[in-house]
Structure formats: structure tokens, C-alpha cells
Recover the amino acids of this structure.
């Protein structure tokens, strides 16, 4: 199944096989979700862009928002030709199995997942070369991406604001080993070619970072024409929200980019199948911990702790260890809260079913 227009959006043989399995009679049309609104979506089919919506049943049976479509999803549509002609919305009948899903804990909610985007090839964490630069915040973004199975790189933007940008790059590299760091300035056009070589045509990259780090400005530099509003940062270096929704764009070179609103609250969502309640992105600390005297070492004051020994020797930054411990505690609490919320929901569901009024013959049909 070759669909030239969809090939540019990343359509391949695996997606075609999945579509054939879900709809062997080909009564639907494949499309990729490019923008998410409150109750509707924009999607691109081989014939062009259409508005579409999930069915009421899909909303009703969804255990949480992960069961609903999100930007980057491949879906199967009915009524796409009518929607293209302006006769209402197309209907989303199926979501093709995802290769990954970027999801965080909903702001202020310990047991509610908030999906952000699907089927991502690379996550780019943007941080600017001013007071916004924060190693703990970078760790949180990298943890979020790794827990979702998404490769990551860091983009240090606005390097024209500092005299020694390479010193900042080296600083970031010491606290985020094994993660590529790209210095970027759209004023001097530094690093843009490096990004283009990293995100190749038909690859999907997601832009993550706080408000004001330059995500929308970068996107405008990559696209054929400016599409995102940009705002100046405030006097205290804090950013302003310019992006208001998640949206997928096609760059001039054919690479695909998902822009995200800035996030001030960032908590990892623990997948239900996780057995170990630990963070994923601190491979350097985990490697050191293999040599600790005790398998359940907390790296606080235990004798024979290889991690603390590395701190004393100057091989590991103490702030990185402190952030590892903080995220580990947060993740353990999150896993516990999610399990508790799930047990409560299951108990309430069982009680509701047990005491539901029986209306007669139809109850057993």
C-alpha cells in the first residue's frame, strides 16, 4: 500500500500492514493527526487535510486519555471525502498501534496521565543560555523521554547571549553524559545545519522546553513560512507562552516537527507494567551503583557505597546525585499513588456492577 502524500508524513509498510489488519476490507482511509483541539482534530490524508472527531463511544469506554487520539497518531477515518468537501467531520474508527507515546502526569494530579504526542523518533529538549538553564529541569525532560522509549538530544539555544557558549555546553555534558548537546543561535545561524542533519526527512521530532526558550522561533526557521507566534522573554528571563496547542508541521527539508506549549510542571507518568520503582535516565549513577556493597543502597550514608565514593573523588557531581535521589523519591510516590488510585477505581467499579439495579430479561442478554 503506497500512499505518496502520506509517505512524507512517515507512512511505511508497517503502518500499512497494521491498517490492513484492522480494516481488511479497506473501508476506511489512513490519516495522521496533525493538531489536537478540545473536542476535534485536524488530520492529513492522501487527499489533504480534514477535520475529524472520535466517536462518543470512544470517549465513553476510554479508561483515560491514552485511549484517545493525539498528535502524531496514525488513524483510520470514515467519511473523509465528505469532510474534505466541507460536509461535517470525518470519524475516527481506529488508532493504529503506537510505536511510543509521550505522556506525563497531569498537572496537579498524581494518578491521571496526560498524553502529549505519539510515534516520535527523537525528542529535542530546548534550554536557553540564560538563567533558564537548569540541570535538574533537563534531567526531568530526559527522564520523561526515556521512560517513553524516545531517544533524546539537548539543544542549547540563544548562545549569542553568552561570551563562552562552549563552556556551557561542556557543563551540560558533564551532568547529562551520553546525550548529544547542540549549541544553537538563530541570530548567528549557528547549529541549524546540525539540527537538520540530526532530524532527517520523514523523521518526527518533538520540541520540549519551558516557555521562552525559542521553540516557536526555531520552528519558524525550519518551515517554509512562519507559522508560530513568538514573544519576547520577560525582564526576569522567564518565558511567555506563545504556543497554545500541540501541532505537527512539515519542514522545508521534509522533516516533521511537533511543537508543544511550555510546561512549568513536569512529572513522569509511571507505566502500569513497571516493576521497579526507579528512574531511568541516570545510567551513569546506575553503573556506579553496580559496585555498591548493598544491592538496596540508597547512596546516602551506607558503607561501601560506590556512588558516594565517586562523589568524593570528584567523578560524580553531588548536585546530580541529589537530583537523582529527588526524582527517585517522586517516582516511587507516583507509582504508589497510581496503584492506589487504580485499586480504588477497580473496587468502585466492582461495587457499582454488584449493586446495579436489574431491569429484567435484557440484563442477561
Amino acid at each position: 500500500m503506497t500512499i505518496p502524500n502520506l509517505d512524507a508524513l512517515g507512512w511505511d509498510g508497517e503502518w500499512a500492514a497494521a491498517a490492513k489488519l484492522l480494516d481488511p476490507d479497506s473501508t476506511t482511509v489512513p490519516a495522521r493527526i496533525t493538531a489536537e483541539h478540545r473536542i476535534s482534530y485536524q488530520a492529513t490524508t492522501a487527499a489533504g487535510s480534514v477535520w475529524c472527531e472520535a466517536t462518543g463511544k470512544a470517549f465513553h469506554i476510554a479508561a483515560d486519555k491514552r485511549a484517545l487520539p493525539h498528535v502524531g497518531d496514525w488513524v483510520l477515518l470514515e467519511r473523509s471525502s465528505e469532510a474534505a468537501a466541507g460536509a461535517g467531520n470525518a470519524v475516527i474508527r481506529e488508532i493504529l498501534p503506537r510505536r511510543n507515546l509521550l505522556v506525563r502526569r497531569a498537572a496537579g494530579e498524581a494518578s491521571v496521565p496526560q498524553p502529549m504526542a505519539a510515534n516520535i523518533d527523537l525528542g529535542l529538549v530546548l534550554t536557553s543560555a540564560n538563567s533558564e538553564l537548569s540541570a535538574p529541569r533537563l534531567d526531568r525532560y530526559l527522564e520523561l523521554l526515556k521512560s517513553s522509549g524516545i531517544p533524546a538530544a539537548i539543544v542549547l539555544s540563544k548562545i549569542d547571549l553568552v561570551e563562552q557558549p562552549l563552556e556551557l555546553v561542556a557543563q551540560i555534558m558533564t551532568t547529562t553524559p551520553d546525550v548529544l548537546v547542540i549549541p544553537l543561535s538563530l541570530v548567528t545561524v549557528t547549529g541549524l545545519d546540525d539540527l537538520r542533519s540530526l532530524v532527517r526527512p520523514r523523521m518526527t521530532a518533538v520540541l520540549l522546553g519551558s516557555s521562552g526558550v525559542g521553540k516557536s522561533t526555531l520552528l519558524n526557521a525550519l518551515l517554509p513560512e512562519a507559522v508560530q507566534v513568538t514573544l519576547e522573554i520577560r525582564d526576569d528571563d522567564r518565558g511567555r507562552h506563545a504556543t497554545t496547542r500541540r501541532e505537527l508541521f512539515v519542514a522545508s527539508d521534509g522533516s516533521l516537527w511537533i511543537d508543544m506549549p511550555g510546561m512549568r510542571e513536569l512529572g513522569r507518568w509511571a507505566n502500569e507494567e513497571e516493576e521497579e520503582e526507579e528512574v531511568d535516565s541516570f545510567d551513569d549513577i546506575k553503573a556506579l551503583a553496580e559496585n555498591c556493597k548493598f544491592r538496596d543502597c540508597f547512596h546516602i550514608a551506607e558503607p561501601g557505597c560506590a556512588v558516594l565514593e565517586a562523589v568524593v573523588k570528584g567523578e560524580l557531581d553531588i548536585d546530580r546525585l541529589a537530583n537523582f535521589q529527588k526524582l527517585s523519591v517522586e517516582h516511587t510516590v507516583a507509582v504508589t499513588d497510581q496503584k492506589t488510585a487504580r485499586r480504588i477505581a477497580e473496587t468502585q467499579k466492582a461495587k457499582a456492577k454488584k449493586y446495579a439495579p436489574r431491569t429484567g430479561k435484557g440484563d442477561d442478554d
Q: What stands out?
A: DSSP finds eleven helices and 13 strands in the chain. The chain has a mean pLDDT of 83.
